[in-house]
Amino acid sequence: MSDYKQLAADVVAELRRQGADACDVYIVSSNGFSTTVRLGQIEKLQRSIAKGMGLRVFKNGAQAITYTTDFRDASVKGLAHEALEIVKVSSADPYNGLAPKEALGIYAGKLAISDPAIAKIPTEKKIEIARDTEAAGRDFDKRITNSQGASWSDSATEVTLANSDGFVGQYQTTNASFSVSLVAEDAGVKQTDYWFSFGRAASLLDAPKVVGETAARRTIAKLGARKPKSQVVPMVVDPTMSSTFVDMIFGAAAGGAIFRKSSFLVDKLGQQIGSPLLTVIDDATIADGPGSRPFDGEGVKASRVTVVEKGVLKSYMCDSYSARRLKQPLTGTTARGYSGGPGVSSSNLFLQAGESNPKDIVKSVKNGLYLTGFQGSGFNNVTGDFSQGAYGFWIENGEIAYPVQEITIAGNMLKVLQNVAMVGNDLTFKLGSSAAPTILISEVTVGGA
Question: Residue 263: is it exposed, middle or buried by C-beta count within 10 angstroms (0-12/13-18/19+)?
Answer without folding.
Answer: buried
